[in-house]
Amino acid sequence: MSKRKEEGFSQATCHKRARPRPEGDSDEDLERVFFEGVSHQTVVTHDNVSSFQNAASFQNVAPPPANVAPQWTSEEVGVIESIHVENFMGYSSLGPVYFGPNINFVVGRSGKNALLTALIVGLGGKSLGTPLKDLVKDGEVSARISVSLKNKGEDAFKPEFYGHSIIILHYIGVDGSTSCELRNQAGHLVSVQKEELIAILEHFKIRVDNPMSVLPHEMGRQLLRIRNESDRYKLFLKVTELEQMREECKKILERKARNLHDIEQGQEQLDLIRRQGLEIEEHFKTMDALEKQLEDLRHEKTWALVNETERTIGNMITNINVEDQLTMILNHDLEVSRVTYNETLQRYVAIHESVLKLSEEAALLEPKCLEAKEDAKRRDRAYRQAMAFYNYSQNELIKLDKVAEELHAKIVQVKKNLELAELEKQKKISVLKEKINNFKEQEDSLVQEIKYLHQSIEKDDEEHSRIREEESYVQEILNEEQQQLNHLRDYKTDPLKRFGPQIPALLEAIDDAHKQGYFTFKPIGPLGACIRVRDPEFALAIESCLKGLLLDFFCDNHKDEQILQELIKRFYAVGSTRPQVIVSPFACELYDVTERAASHPEFPTVLAALEINDAVVANTLIDLRGIEQVLLVKSSSFGNAVMHVQAPPKNCSKIVSACGDRVFEVRYYSCEDLRPIYLGDMEIEINHLQKEVENKMAQLSAFQQHVYSLQNDIRKNRDTIDTHYRHLRDIKVKVISITSEIRDLEDEEENQSIDLSILEDEAQEIKVEMKEVEEKIRLRREEMENLRQPKIEAEQRHEELKLKFSKVSELVESLMEERNQTGLEVNAQHQSLMHYQSRLKQHVDAVQVIKEELVIKEREFEREIVEASYICPQRIEVTRASDVLDREIDMLTQRIQSENFTHRSQEEVKLQYHEIKERYLDLSGKVFNMKNLTETLDEILFQRYENYQKSRQNLSLQCKLFFDSLLSQWSFSGELRFNHRSETLSIKVQPCGDMPALAAGRQAFSNFLFFLTLWSVTESPFRCLDTFDIYMDRKSRKVAMDMLLKISNSYQNHQIILLSPQNMSSLPLSPLIEVFEMPDPDLGREKMTFPFATGNPEEQH
């Protein structure tokens, strides 16, 4: 028999529950327990059952060529290879439709019902509410259905007759008559018996009437809309065949009741017959010779029956001995399978431990690699900046050199022109200038005074602008300090707001979630609220050391992290800065850092300067920042002296000064902040800000007085300038006539002289600039050379750490792949072990049935000996068969009857006496047999009911395990609860984390999860679902489809056929997925083949 049980799951490893036993051992208790139900219920939730192995993700693989049947493996038996119909439900010819061994989607607007009906009828099921004659296409005489089943592998059915495929042909006449043919792989007829088809379906565990194997559209609608817990429990009993077991127990009880009633009636009849015999014995003591002969024949018949029963018992004992030898063989196979399973499991555990160790090493290397990368980037950035400055200075020098050459040529040319014209112009100009010298002296004195006044005004304006800018700057600082002062006063009433206005509400939400049991361990944070600075002078230094960790939260595991992230999203808008969440297992004991802590007689470490009450916080700071190796100093000069001049202290990684500067062994970083933000003493910070606000207000008052004085000076100077300008205008009017005569000559001379002086000044300025640029080039070349070697060393260190981290990561990935493969081997070995256990149990049960039959036969043999000894105490050696003796007795009886009819003597009464006696013995034997049968029925009833309870308990526990694993893999929470006493089954499903809400179709989605759960406890080589997803909303349908794909991908040795009107273009490309689009009816009379194709159907058309 095929053993295709869907047991490819990892077993629960924690929180195991003791298996309950039925209450009561007596017959009355057994019957009461059976009818009243088991008086306990077991609930297994997501918290106490380990999840299953995660299935491998889909891989994008190119689709197979068209018109090619899917590839099959040698281990798949009973799955559907193809379906082909002719003249069936509106189709002249449909197919053959080739199904893949894994996931098959049948889509289209119509025709899916025809394909599903053909599958059910072709496998011996009933049509979906339609008479068989109506399935024949209009105008045709008959319809033909051909279903091909895979028959290759160890569990193949009569492979010597059928080969690798079994073809089932069904013919439906227009009058509703049907006939069946079973053909082999080559198409040759093997059998036309319906019993052969039933044997094939039983062998492959195919039950088309079971909704877990084939789920039609109407039945799927009813199942997905189940709300009654009793109906859901009845469905569980039906699909797992527990209902059949319970009905068998009820039939045994009814048969037992009938036997007891028959025994009571038999006893009454025995009493009546005994009284009749005693009355006859009082009158007749002897028997006729003929009656004696008849009695002898009956004695022989009795012992003949004893001999036949004895021979039957001997044959049964021989068969039992043969079966016992087979039991030993099965025990040996089971032990070998158990040893192999234990070895594979040990290898899996060893690989898992190696993965954990390497993962810890990779986790230690990653922050070092990131730090080295940041250092390399920082040094490369500084080197590139220096190179850019160097190149810029070189380009600037080249430009200045070119401009100097051009100016030199212009100066030479201008000097030559001035020498020629100066002699002639000088004579004419000297005469005219004598006339206006007196006016010029007056004008010069006025101009000088005006110039002095303008300079004074400009100076006052600059001073006024500078004071205004300083006043504005001081006002901005004052506003910021006042705002900060108000915040600090607010923080004084609620210190948690210091870490963000949302923090108090967030912490309150975390407390509520922890009280409700959402967290395994309550998250810790923010960090700044969990620590206290012993010396406020080091507050800025500690903030510089810890940086962003002061706002971070800590979680023990990733599940708590997901819940905390959801809470954070409630209080922080999208795009805003959110606190980070660090995941690390909580260690309740503080690390012992005595050997690795920095030691200095004067300077404390950060760990010593902090007061930390929670060991988890202290351990996390040690792991992330190494605070036990960081020293605190009062002044940066002390830190430089300790790290650079003297030898660094033992185990000291860096020194942080009170002003926040960080001093390393080879580098130094200044702190941008002037005051602490999160860890400073509130009173000190408030007093400091109050003093700063008072100083700024005093500065603003002084600035305002100074501005008023400057405005008065500017106004007076401008009035004086206006008076001097009026005097100048008078002087210029007097010299206009003289100036007009010499203006033309002076303009040329002045323009040329001005141009020459300007050119010479520019040439001199360019020479000075060239010297400055050359000095810059020299300094920047030295700076670039100094930065080159540290840059190369930092890049080399980063590459070394990166290479080491890459090697460790690759080794972890390879070990994880090996661990996953070993996990699959463990599951396969576990399935093999369960297979052998099941075979051994079935075999032992069968042998036990034979032994029970032997016991019954032996009891019957003993009863026959008792009866024979009662009739004839001396055993007779009989050579004739009982039927021969029956014929002789009949002949003798007829003779006696003929003689009695003739003579009418007292022999007639004697004969009546013997008949009464025989009736008494026969009835006594029947009563005895019925009593034995009643005892046997009690034993069988107890055994079957115990098996029923064990099967029900195991199946319900398996359902809960699968259900909880399914919820955990898809970020759901919920519960599957069985109540066997009241025969109810309840389901609760709630999304958690980032999963979308499913309120619109929660009932249908919950029943769909229950439907998937029932798959794990039912046996079938294939599953067929018809439009199961149209009763769900869009979100539920997407999650349900993802679940089906992942589960189907996990169990690749099971075939799944999904009929859906939805578009499957969004399915991932995978060799495991086949998509078939149904054609419309009446496409034509040509025979068309529709192979499945992978990918987007629109692309294939």
TrEMBL record:
GO molecular function, one term: damaged DNA binding
Keyword Coiled coil: yes
Main location (coarse class): nucleus
Xref: InterPro entries: P-loop_NTPase
GO annotation, cellular component aspect: nucleus; site of double-strand break; Smc5-Smc6 complex
Source domain of life: Eukaryota
Record's keyword annotation contains Translocase: no
Chain positions covered by the region annotation Disordered: 1-27
Coiled coil segments of this chain: 239-307, 404-449, 679-818
Keywords: ATP-binding, Chromosome, Coiled coil, DNA damage, DNA recombination, DNA repair, Nucleotide-binding, Nucleus
Any single GO BP term: double-strand break repair via homologous recombination
Localisation per UniProt entry: Chromosome; Nucleus
PANTHER family for this protein: STRUCTURAL MAINTENANCE OF CHROMOSOMES 5,6 SMC5, SMC6, STRUCTURAL MAINTENANCE OF CHROMOSOMES PROTEIN 6
Membership in a protein family: Belongs to the SMC family. SMC6 subfamily.
Protein name (record): Structural maintenance of chromosomes protein 6
